[in-house]
Amino acid sequence: MFGRIDHVGVAVEDLDAAIGLYEKSFAMELAHRETVESQGVEAVLLDVGDGHIELLRPLGPDTAVGKFLARKGPGLHHVAYAVEDIDATLGRLAEAGLELIDREARVGIRDSRVAFLHPRSTGGVLTEIVEPAGGEH
């Protein structure tokens, strides 16, 4: 069902400091930086193997990532898996009884299509499925 791990999302308070940590300490290359207004974040992708680390800074305290930071502090936010057909995958996941946060895909970073699964049905891990734009698997 899942092609590979697309990225691991990490919530941060200071995006530039976090970029510095990952670039200097882990020798990860900055691949992309974008503000995703619809999700209330400024996001950065850093390359690691065939996947990415996605650093997420909330645009405000009332955003999903802002609320996460207030509750839990900086750290692991979600794991994202690449899929070829997000609509079909969402259907299969719903049929399997998983709780979907998003019943329909929405636009994510780099014009990907994304949807989230509730941690209550995924062993406590916020799970994202991603259909990369233009078939970038």
General description of the model:
By secondary structure, the chain is α+β, with helices and mostly antiparallel strands. The protein has three helices and eight strands; from the N terminus they run βαβββαβαβββ. It has helices at residues 15-26, 64-72, 86-95, and strands at 4-11, 29-36, 41-48, 51-58, 75-82, 106-107, 113-117, 127-131. The chain has an eight-stranded mixed beta sheet with strand order 2-3-4-1-5-8-7-6. A hairpin with a 5-residue loop joins strand 6 and strand 7. The longest helix is centred in the N-terminal third of the chain and has 12 residues, at 15-26.
Offer a quick outline of the entry.
This protein has 137 residues and is α+β, with helices and mostly antiparallel strands. 23% of the residues lie in helices and 38% in strands.
What key attributes describe this structure?
alpha+beta, globular, 137 residues, single chain
